[in-house]
Fold this sequence. Notes:
By secondary structure, this protein is mainly alpha-helical. 70% of the residues lie in helices and 5% in strands. The protein has a 3-stranded antiparallel beta sheet, with no helix packed on it. It has a two-stranded parallel ribbon with strand order 3-5. The chain is built from 11 helices and 5 strands, in the order H-H-H-H-H-H-E-E-E-E-E-H-H-H-H-H. A hairpin with a 5-residue loop joins strand 1 (208-213) and strand 2. Helix 9 packs parallel to helix 11.
Amino acid sequence: MVEEITLSTEKLLSISSNSLFVAFILLLIAILPLGLAVKSKGRMFERLGLTLTGGAFLLQLSYFFLRWKAVEHAPVSNMYEFMTFFGIMLIGSFLIIHFLYKQIVVGLFVIPVSLIIIGYGSVFTREVTPLIPSLQSNWLTIHVITVAFSSAILSIAFATGIIYLLRTLDVHKKTASTRGLEFVMFCLIVTIGFIGASTVFNLATEEVTVQFENAQETVEQTTYTMMPLVVNKGAVAVSGESISAIELSNKIDAKKLNSIVWAFIVGSILYGVIRLLTRKKIIVLLKPLTNRVNAPLMDEISYRAVVIGFPLFALGGLLFAMIWAQIAWSRFWGWDPKEVWALITFLYYAAFLHFRLSKGWEGEKTAWLSIIGFGIIVFNQVFVNLVISGLHSYA
């Protein structure tokens, strides 16, 4: 009986992973007809792109619910599961926005961002492990799912903000706005570099296990999948080999910071190769895709996305989180780094709406506020989780 249950779980996990993989491929394929749709007067390419996107979204939902059944809890408890669900909700948010506004160009920019997010999540372990006591709560499911969904809706404003700027800016001129927009493109390529570097290291190199005395003054071991460039102070290889790396404070998770360092190295090389081959800035390459865009409508979608996403984030990121914190740690608020950045995110988007409604900040200002807001979300979900030690470090 136990063997039958185990086989059933393994089969569910296998089908779940395959569904996600096929969905990933379909979304990659969908980019082509969506790209053709923004330049075509007919609707054939648009229908094909939307069909592929809708089919991929259904497969992504299959992944989510099959994995939920297999692991017997909502699959949002680690970085792989959360980032994957975040990417799925981004596709779902695009489909909702398209239903409301019929702007296919939004999908052309949202889908690559979603694929980058899902690809980023895939570099983390997919292993199924029992939940630690503080995660064994239905409020965790409610809290994390609401945060992921609200973050995805807010991320729509990021995509429409980029589209607005590409449409309205003269990308051939060297201004603060064009430099800033090019830097945003560079950051996206850095994330692609991280995915590529992680894949190569996992396939081509051996893991390196080091041990060191952590902040609690106990000996800790950690395994590097990427060649160590930064380690914690006093770290030595368990194998006895010497480590030539920069030593950092033991309050920082050096292993995870090492991954970020490699991301910037590989991403910078990839960006340089693209610039060298095309002899153009990324924003110049993307500009033609927005020639038929209605800029005021993009501005309106950015605003509406924040109007919807902000209260949802307030519920999931603060209210539901505090209820869970009370159950898990017997306090509503503890100034954990993750909690602090959730509050910063809330205050930022509150300020966004204040400036929009009271100060009349529209157009380019709204676009930049949307892009910066997405940066704060990513910083909270990636950097805070990976580098800064806290109660949410297991996530």
